[in-house]
Each structure stands twice: as structure tokens, then as C-alpha cells.
């Protein structure tokens, strides 16, 4: 096992899911695998929090779900980013960059 | 948008729960499956893979719970479950449920009933557009003899209209009353009618449903247009909604009018207690200074009522100074000086009855609120005991992983279910209660037309009260139960229950609250008693009274003859002692005038006297005692020579210790009369009013009859109607009733307050006593073991009884002590408001406080005595084996 997976910074899960779906529509497992891969195993999602977030995003109209056959011939729910979701991702990414830069400046100034 | 979407999805999930659940299952299943497949590719067996996934990602069921709880509809769902569970639990203990629901229903019902009446009579806005802009331009005085509300003359109305024209519109109505009405040339019906200014409908913005309403030009014409508008309800009731009534000639107060329209449905005038049938235009009357109009104004947007009041006051003073003062008597001047214009919000109309009973109703409102508080304490005690019995259940649920908040919320839901059921039954009770309340109001010539239908405001009120009571009686016990300690509680056997202290505290609180109610009830009952037993000067017992009504223009001679004949016919019945007539004994039949005493060397400033006309036998009929000289007889009617009878106060004021008999007085219109008799002082203007100096003049006719007899009411009523009809066909009998009823109606506010405060005071004591009984009984049953040991160690039965009673007495005395302090504080605080409602008793009457305290302690001890006796009968052997 690699290092113990860390918890996500509060409030970033939504953004990560949106980002994942911006690359390509996929199902819940796909999202979790991709986040794990892209973070090189730093973030491992718990099924509960993942689907809670998916449910919330879908209700807010940021993503759309659709039943489709999956790779192993079962039905899975595939999620796509909506226009509204794309816009939200943009603003959140910008905001995130701004905050990271600010925090970085604070930490560097010693 | 996203909120709407959220609600829509939520509702879909609620109503298609199965499908949503299946989908969630499938999605999560697919997820686990995929992850497991991934692991199997690395060579792990399927079983191990699934186990690993579950360990890493959390179990399927838990995940499902987490996902489900993330949305709002899950709260609804849980709550619905709780509600069903609560209903099941309550059904399982029908005794407890019945007692609690009934107690709450009584409390909430009483509150709702009084609220409904206050709402209907005072607060419900008029069914017109923008009622908030409507104000009552009241002419009133608050000074001593002159206190009261007065009407305006037509010229003042015109003046005020001019004054207000830049910022508002003044409109006028006369006092609504029963009016003669007829269709075929005979005025044989009575309707509720009022004359209103031509702009009445346009200012209120009330339109017609058929024809037209009154218009401003209707009262501009000299003498007014003789047109009438009917209310929708009257049109439906009397004319079966027949549109051909338009253009029809009707008789209104014996004057022909033409019906021009029907007002729109729902509009019944501007007084909540009266449903007006007919409106006619108000026109100037023969005497320009006759006061008969009430004025209202619709203020334009943003006009300050205070400024409007100042401008009306100025206009009023100018009118008084220019027109009225020059010819006014000193006393009338004083009266005019004391009157002022007040601009008062009238969004709910004139609310005459409502304002009259506002104070008693508000007092009763406070009383029933306290009764509800006492019931809450009772139910809280019941619930504490019940939760103690359910201790095991609660602990098991906590041990199985329910959060404390969850348990508390579930218990609270149960209490909320209780109080909402109580509110529902209470609302039903209140519909009946409101009718009882209205029936306690004195009978009026027009039927009471309050809209007592519970509306949204009333529903809102009782629901609000229910939620508030649930919080009051249920939140504490629910929170307390959810804090049970797990470790010791799962052990069987001796249980630690801490409800004893809170139970006692609630008990003391109940008694403390009951005492002020008892004191208040005592004050009001005593007031009523004092008023009833106060000497009116005359004797209203066994006297029937009625008014004669006759067509306008009936000659005096004809009336004189009729009066004499009715008197003679009535007196011929066996059982009738004496019958006579005069202006009425009470209230509005008398008038006043200025008197000159011949040979009085130093006439005082105030020579106004009250005047009453009296037929032969008048004094005998109303039982007004003679002090000197003689009563008036039928010979005096000829006015040759003119004579008069005066009362004690008059004689004392003008003649001191000298005899008044034979003295001469001059009255308008300059007739010199000789005093032939002096009678006792009588309170002709109300029990609370001071006694006026009175002069009684011989009358040839009278509108009011008084019949003293030993016959029963029904028999006599029949005889009266028959005799009047036989004497003259044009005469009609009105307001036939015992004189005592008239007297009682004068103190109807006090009667209402006394009756209801006593009833609610006793109810409060009863509830508190039941609570006390319950708590002591519960305490005794819990201490059976202890009593057994005490008796085994040698305690006597009496000792046990004393022990229980002594401990109860401590609680009772504590509560009563707080109650006395509280009552004194309340009485101090409200003394200015209460004083006006009392008569012949001080709010801090010592004997009353003592009486209330002693009765309360007695009631409490009685309630505690039964369980204490049971405690003393415990068999030590049984008790020791107990539990």
C-alpha cells in the first residue's frame, strides 16, 4: 500500500468531480478511479461521500445522469457536465487558483 | 430555478420511492462490481475482492443511508415515520392519550373561542378595499359626568368634509337600528337599516351586483333622493334574489323609497356585529343641531392621522364656538368644552360591541392562557411519568445507535401529535364555545351578526398555540429522556428516576398560577354581587316592561286614550298589581333641563336636572318609594294646577331640612309647578352612575309601559299583546321583557367577566388538583418499598400518612406563597386597568386573598389525601417483596 490517502480539502470534491467530467462523461466508479489516478493515489474517495456529491450536483443541474450499458455489460449511470456545470467549474477553478496563490504568498513570506 | 428543480426531484423521490431506491441500489451495485472486477484482474478471488472493496469503500447499506440522508425529502420521510410511530405509541395507551388530548382540547378550545370572538368583533378587517386607510373620527369626552361618545350634526359633517377634502374623504352613517319596513303600504316588518352619506359606497369602494349603489348626488338634492340600496343577504333572504325588486317602492320608516340596487355580496356594513339590510341617503334634518351621525374618513396615502385629528379638532372648536356656545346653558357649555375629536383606526369598522367588551375579553384571554399553562404543566407531569415508564425502550434505542437528538425529536413528535390532536378537538369545541360566549352578551334589538366562521387567522392561531404548548410541555421531558445514562440503565431492578423534583416544581408552578385566577374570579364575582345588590332606588322584580310603537303623526289625544285604556285593561287582570307608563326608567327615555326654584335666594351655577315623565301609578309600578307628600295621579294629567314630584337629592339640595312640599319650581317652557311629593333617589342612568337631581312630570301618554304583577312572564306577555291590540290597532308591542333583564343588561360586561372568570378559575383549580393527585399517587406507588421498610421498622399508619401529607404540603405552600406574591404583583401592575372593572371592592382585598389561599390549600390537601391514605394501607410484607 502507498501512503495513507489524505482527506480532501473541504469543498473541493465538487470541483474535482466537475473537472473529471469535463474531460469525458463517465460513471461513478470512473470518477473515483480517475480522481485516484490523477492525484497519484493521494485522494481515495469513499462511496458514500462520492454519491452524495453526485446526487447534489445533479439536483443543482450541474451534471446530468443517464443510464447506459457499461464495459462489463451491466447498466451504469453515466454523468455529463451541463453548460451550467462548465460555467461553475470555470469560476471555481479561478477562485481556487486565486486562493492557492494567496496562500502560497503567505507561506513563502517568512 | 435550481430550487424548483430540487423540490421537483425531491417530490419525485418521495412519491416514487421504490423506483428511486432500486436505481440507487443498481448504481451502487455497479460501482462495487466494477471495483471488484478491477481487483479480480489482479488475481484476487471474487469473494476476497468484494470483501476488500467493502472494507475500503464502506458497506453498501451504510453508503445507501449516507446518500439518502443527503436530501431534504429524507427529513420528511423520517418525520412521517415518526408520526406514524407516535400515533401507534399513543394508541397503545388510550387512557393517557385521552386525558392529555381532552385537557389540551379544553385549554386550546377556550383560547380559540375567545380569540375568535375578539377577532370577529375587533380585529377582522372590513371586506372593503384598503381598510387600513379608514379611520373613525370620534367625538368623545373622558371627563366624569360627560364621559362618553357622541354623534355629530349634519352641519359638522359638511364642515369636516370641507376640512378634509385636500387629504381625505369624510363619510357619515347613523347608528344602525331596527327600522320600520313594509312592502304593501303597511310597515309591519323590522329591518336593520342605516342612513349613510351619498359617498358611503364610493369611499368604501363597494359596488353593486344589480342596479346601482348610493351615489354622492343622492344626498345633494334637497331632502335627498328617496332611493334605497339593499344588502345582498337581505335581497336573497327577503326577495329570493329576484331582480324585479329594482324600481320597487318600499316603505322605510314610513316613508316611500325606491329600490335602486343591491350591494355586492359580502358587504354587510361597517359594524362587525350588525348585518345591514337597507341603506338610504342621510339628509339634513329639521333641527340642524341634532346630533345623529357618526363620521369616518378615508385618509389618502401617507396622511398622518395625528395631523388629520388636529385639523378636525380645529374645525370642531370653530363650529362649537360659532354655532353652539352662544346659546348653550352653563352645563352644556361645560360638556362641549370636555369633548374632543379623536381619529382612531377603523380598519375593522366601528366595532361598537367589540370595543365595549374589549377589556373583559382581554382579561378572559389572559385567564384562559393561564389555564392552558396549567394544563401544560399537568401534561408535562404525565409525560415525565410516562417517559420514566418507557425508560427501558429509550435506553435500548440509544444502545442500538440512535443519536440522542434523534430520540428527543421522536419523543417531541409524539408530543406534537398530542397537541395537534388537542388543537383539532379544541377547534371543534371553540365553534360551540364562541356561540355560548355570544349568547352571554345582552340581547340587542338586532340579531348579532358576528362572522364567527373560523378562518385562516383562527386556524393559524390554534395551530400556533398547539405548537407552542407542545414546546412548553414536551420539549423539556423529551430532552431529558434522551439524556438517559446508558451504563447503569440496562441493568434491571432499581431504576434511577429523577422526575420527582421536576414534577414537584411543575406542581408548585400550577398552584402559583391558579391563585391569581381565583383571586381575579373573586374580585369579579364580588363586583357583580355588589352591583346586583346595590340599591337602585326602585324595585325591578316582578315588573314587565314594553315599548309602544305607532305610525308617525298619531295624535296625542289618540295616544292618551290608548295609554289609559291599556292601563285599565291590564289592571283588570287578576294578578296584575298596577300598570303604568312613562318615559323609560333606565337609560335613554329621560331628558334634562334647567330648573328655577321660585324664591331660592342663592341659585347655584348648576341648575340642570334629570326629567322623567310619569303616568298615574308610575312610581307604584316600578316600586319607587315615597318619602313625603303624594304620588302623581290621573287628575294631575290635566295640568291644572301643574304639579311635579322631585327626588330626595333635589329636595336636599334646594330646601335642605325644610319641606319641599308646596314649593314651586319653574321649568321650560316657563310653567310654574308645585311640588306635591318627594320620592327616594333612584339610579336612572346606570348602577355605576351618580344619582341626579330628578323632577318627575305628570304624563298623559308614554312610550314605555311598566306592569307589576304576580303572573308568570308567558301568561302576562300574552295578556299584554292582546290588550294592546284590543285598545288600538295601530299600536305595536316592542321590546317586551322583564325590567330585571333591562337592569341586568346594564351590567352585562361585569356578568360576562364574573361568570367566565369564575368558571375558568375553578377549571384551573380542578386541573391543578388532578395534577397534584396524579403526582402524589405516582410518588406513593414508587415509594411502596420504602413505606414497607418504614412500617417493618415500626412506623404507624398515621405516621406514613402524615409523612406523605407533610411533603405535599411543603410543595403546596411553596406554590401558594409564590402565587400570593405573583397575584399582588399582577394586581399592582394592572390596578389602573382593573379598577374600572371593579365595583365596591379593592383589588388588594385582604379577606379575598385569604379566602382564595385557604380554598386552594384545601383543594390541594383533598387531592393529596386519597393517595396518602393508600400509602398508609400498604402491607409491609407485600411492599417488601415489591420489585
- The whole-angstrom Rg of chain A is 15 Å
Instruction: Give the radius of gyration of chain B.
Output: 37 Å
The dominant shape of chain A is globular
Q: Identify the strand order in the major beta sheet of chain A.
A: 1-3-2
Q: What structural class is derived from the secondary structure elements of chain B?
A: alpha+beta
Order of helices and strands of chain A: HEHHEEH
The residue ranges of chain B in which pLDDT falls below 50 over 5 or more consecutive positions are 492-499
Stretches of chain A where pLDDT falls below 50 for ≥5 residues? none
Number of helices of chain A: 4
* Average pLDDT level of chain A: 84
Q: Indicate how many domains the architecture of chain B comprises.
A: 4
Oligomer: heterodimer
Q: Classify the fold: give the CATH topology of chain A.
A: Arc Repressor Mutant, subunit A
Helix content of chain B: 40-55%
- Report the sheet with the most strands of chain A, covering strand number, pairing sense and barrel closure: 3 strands, antiparallel
CATH class descriptor name of chain A: Mainly Alpha
Report the sheet-strand fraction of chain B.
Answer: 15-25%
Written description of the protein model:
The complex is a heterodimer of chains A (110) and B (883). Chain A is α+β, with helices and mostly antiparallel strands and 110 residues long. Chain A has one domain: Arc Repressor Mutant, subunit A. Chain A contains four helices and three strands; from the N terminus they run H-E-H-H-E-E-H. Chain A has helices spanning 13-23, 28-38, 47-59, 83-108; strands spanning 26-27, 63-69, 75-81. In chain A, helix 1 (13-23) packs across helix 4. Chain A is globular, with a radius of gyration of 15 Å. The relative contact order of chain A is 0.16. By secondary structure, chain B is α+β, with helices and mostly antiparallel strands. Chain B has four domains: 2-71, no CATH class; 131-353, no CATH class; 356-532 and 748-881, no CATH class; 551-730, no CATH class. In chain B, 54% of the residues lie in helices and 16% in strands. Chain B contains 28 helices and 23 strands. In chain B, the strands form four sheets. In chain B, strands 4-5-10-7-9-8 form a six-stranded mixed beta barrel. In chain B, strands 15-16-21-18-20-19 form a six-stranded mixed barrel. In chain B, strands 1, 2, 3, 11 and 12 form a five-stranded antiparallel β-sheet that branches. In chain B, strand 8 and strand 9 (255-263) form a beta hairpin. In chain B, helix 2 (17-41) crosses helix 3 (46-57), helix 6 (94-123) runs antiparallel to helix 13 (358-389) and helix 24 runs parallel beside helix 27 (846-872). Chain B is globular. At the A-B interface, helix 2, helix 3 and strand 3 of A face helix 1, helix 2 and helix 4 of B.
Amino acid at each position: 500500500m502507498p501512503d495513507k490517502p489524505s482527506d480532501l480539502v473541504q469543498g473541493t470534491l465538487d470541483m474535482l468531480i466537475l473537472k473529471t467530467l469535463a474531460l469525458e462523461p463517465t460513471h461513478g466508479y470512473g470518477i473515483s478511479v480517475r480522481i485516484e489516478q490523477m492525484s497519484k493515489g493521494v485522494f481515495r474517495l469513499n462511496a458514500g461521500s462520492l454519491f452524495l456529491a453526485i446526487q447534489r450536483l445533479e439536483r443543482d443541474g450541474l451534471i446530468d445522469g443517464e443510464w447506459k450499458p457499461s464495459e462489463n455489460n451491466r447498466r451504469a449511470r453515466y454523468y455529463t457536465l451541463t453548460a451550467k456545470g462548465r460555467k461553475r467549474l470555470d469560476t471555481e477553478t479561478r477562485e481556487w487558483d486565486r486562493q492557492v496563490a494567496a496562500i502560497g504568498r503567505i507561506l513563502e513570506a517568512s | 430555478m435550481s430550487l424548483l428543480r430540487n423540490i421537483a426531484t425531491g417530490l419525485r423521490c418521495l412519491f416514487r420511492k421504490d423506483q428511486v431506491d432500486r436505481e440507487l441500489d443498481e448504481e451502487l451495485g455497479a460501482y462495487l462490481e466494477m471495483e471488484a472486477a478491477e481487483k479480480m484482474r489482479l488475481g484476487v478471488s471474487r469473494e476476497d475482492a468484494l470483501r476488500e472493496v467493502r472494507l475500503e469503500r464502506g458497506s453498501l447499506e451504510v453508503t445507501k443511508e449516507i446518500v439518502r440522508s443527503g436530501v431534504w425529502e429524507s427529513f420528511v420521510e423520517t418525520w412521517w415515520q415518526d408520526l406514524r410511530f407516535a400515533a401507534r405509541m399513543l394508541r397503545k395507551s388510550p387512557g393517557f392519550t385521552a386525558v392529555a388530548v381532552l385537557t389540551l382540547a379544553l385549554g386550546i378550545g377556550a383560547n380559540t373561542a375567545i380569540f375568535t370572538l375578539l377577532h370577529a368583533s375587533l380585529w377582522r378587517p372590513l371586506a372593503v378595499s384598503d381598510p387600513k386607510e379608514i379611520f373613525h373620527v370620534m367625538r368623545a369626552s373622558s371627563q366624569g359626568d360627560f364621559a362618553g361618545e357622541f354623534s355629530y350634526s349634519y352641519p359638522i359633517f359638511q364642515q369636516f368634509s370641507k376640512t378634509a377634502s385636500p387629504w381625505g374623504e369624510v363619510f357619515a352613517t347613523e347608528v344602525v337600528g331596527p327600522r320600520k319596513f313594509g312592502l304593501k303600504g303597511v310597515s309591519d316588518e323590522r329591518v336593520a337599516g342605516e342612513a349613510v352619506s351619498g359617498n358611503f359606497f364610493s369611499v368604501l369602494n363597494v359596488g353593486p351586483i344589480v342596479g346601482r349603489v348610493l351615489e354622492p348626488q343622492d344626498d345633494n338634492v334637497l331632502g335627498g333622493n328617496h332611493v334605497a340600496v339593499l344588502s345582498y343577504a337581505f335581497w336573497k333572504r327577503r326577495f329570493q334574489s329576484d331582480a324585479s325588486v329594482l324600481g320597487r317602492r318600499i316603505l322605510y320608516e314610513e316613508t316611500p323609497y325606491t329600490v335602486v340596487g343591491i350591494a355586492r355580496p359580502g358587504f354587510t356594513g361597517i359594524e362587525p356585529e350588525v348585518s345591514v339590510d337597507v341603506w338610504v341617503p342621510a339628509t339634513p334634518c329639521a333641527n340642524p343641531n341634532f346630533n345623529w351621525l357618526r363620521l369616518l374618513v378615508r385618509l389618502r396615502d401617507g396622511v398622518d392621522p395625528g395631523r388629520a385629528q388636529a385639523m378636525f379638532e380645529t374645525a370642531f372648536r370653530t363650529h362649537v364656538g360659532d354655532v353652539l356656545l352662544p346659546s348653550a346653558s352653563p352645563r352644556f357649555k361645560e360638556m362641549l368644552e370636555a369633548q374632543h375629536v379623536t381619529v382612531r383606526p377603523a380598519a375593522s369598522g366601528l366595532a361598537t360591541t367589540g370595543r365595549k367588551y374589549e377589556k373583559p375579553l382581554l382579561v378572559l384571554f389572559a385567564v384562559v392562557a393561564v389555564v392552558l399553562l396549567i394544563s401544560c404543566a399537568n401534561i408535562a407531569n404525565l409525560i415525565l411519568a410516562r417517559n420514566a415508564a418507557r425508560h427501558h425502550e429509550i435506553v435500548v434505542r440509544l444502545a442500538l445507535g440512535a443519536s440522542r437528538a434523534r430520540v428527543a425529536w421522536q419523543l417531541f413528535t409524539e408530543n406534537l401529535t398530542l397537541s395537534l390532536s388537542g388543537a383539532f378537538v379544541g377547534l371543534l369545541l371553540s365553534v360551540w364555545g364562541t356561540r355560548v360566549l355570544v349568547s352571554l352578551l345582552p340581547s340587542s334589538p338586532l340579531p348579532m351578526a358576528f362572522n364567527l366562521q373560523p378562518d385562516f387567522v383562527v386556524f393559524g392561531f390554534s395551530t400556533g398555540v398547539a405548537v407552542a404548548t407542545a414546546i412548553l410541555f414536551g420539549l423539556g421531558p423529551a430532552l431529558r429522556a434522551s439524556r438517559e445514562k446508558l451504563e447503569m440503565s440496562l441493568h434491571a431492578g432499581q431504576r434511577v428516576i429523577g422526575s420527582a423534583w421536576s414534577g414537584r416544581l411543575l406542581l408548585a408552578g400550577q398552584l402559583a398560577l391558579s391563585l391569581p385566577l381565583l383571586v381575579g374570579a373573586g374580585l369579579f364575582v364580588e363586583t357583580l354581587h355588589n352591583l346586583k345588590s346595590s340599591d337602585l332606588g326602585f324595585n325591578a322584580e316582578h315588573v314587565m316592561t314594553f315599548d309602544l310603537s305607532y305610525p308617525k303623526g298619531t295624535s296625542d289625544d289618540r295616544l292618551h286614550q290608548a295609554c289609559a285604556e291599556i292601563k285599565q285593561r291590564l289592571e283588570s287582570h287578576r294578578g296584575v298589581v298596577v300598570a303604568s307608563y312613562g318615559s323609560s326608567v333606565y337609560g335613554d327615555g329621560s331628558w334634562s333641563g334647567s330648573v328655577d326654584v321660585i324664591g331660592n335666594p342663592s341659585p347655584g351655577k348648576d341648575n340642570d336636572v334629570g326629567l322623567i315623565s310619569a303616568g298615574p301609578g308610575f312610581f307604584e309600578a316600578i316600586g319607587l318609594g315615597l318619602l313625603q307628600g303624594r304620588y302623581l295621579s290621573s287628575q294631575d294629567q290635566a295640568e291644572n294646577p301643574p304639579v311635579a314630584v322631585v327626588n330626595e337629592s333635589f329636595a336636599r339640595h334646594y330646601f335642605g331640612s325644610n319641606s319641599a312640599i308646596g314649593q314651586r319650581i319653574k321649568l321650560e317652557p316657563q310653567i310654574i309647578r308645585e311640588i306635591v311629593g318627594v320620592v327616594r333617589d333612584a339610579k336612572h342612568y346606570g348602577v355605576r352612575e351618580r344619582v341626579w337631581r330628578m323632577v318627575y312630570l305628570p304624563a298623559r301618554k308614554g312610550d314605555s309601559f311598566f306592569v307589576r304583577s304576580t303572573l308568570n312572564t308567558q301568561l302576562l306577555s300574552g295578556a299584554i299583546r292582546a290588550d294592546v291590540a284590543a285598545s288600538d290597532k295601530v299600536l305595536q308591542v316592542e321590546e317586551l321583557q322583564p325590567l330585571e333583564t333591562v337592569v341586568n343588561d346594564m351590567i352585562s360586561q361585569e356578568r360576562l367577566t364574573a361568570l367566565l372568570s369564575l368558571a375558568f378559575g375553578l377549571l384551573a383549580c380542578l386541573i391543578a388538583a388532578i395534577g397534584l393527585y396524579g403526582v402524589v399517587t405516582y410518588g406513593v406507588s414508587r415509594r411502596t418499598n420504602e413505606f414497607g421498610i418504614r412500617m417493618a421498622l415500626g412506623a404507624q399508619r398515621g405516621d406514613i400518612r402524615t409523612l406523605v401529607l407533610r411533603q405535599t404540603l411543603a410543595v403546596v405552600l411553596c406554590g401558594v406563597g409564590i402565587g400570593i406574591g405573583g397575584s399582588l404583583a399582577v394586581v399592582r401592575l394592572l390596578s389602573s386597568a382593573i379598577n374600572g372593572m371593579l365595583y365596591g371592592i379593592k383589588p388588594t382585598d385582604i379577606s379575598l386573598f385569604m379566602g382564595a389561599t385557604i380554598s386552594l390549600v384545601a383543594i390541594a390537601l383533598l387531592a393529596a389525601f386519597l393517595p396518602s391514605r393508600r400509602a398508609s394501607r400498604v402491607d409491609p410484607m407485600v411492599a417488601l417483596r415489591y420489585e
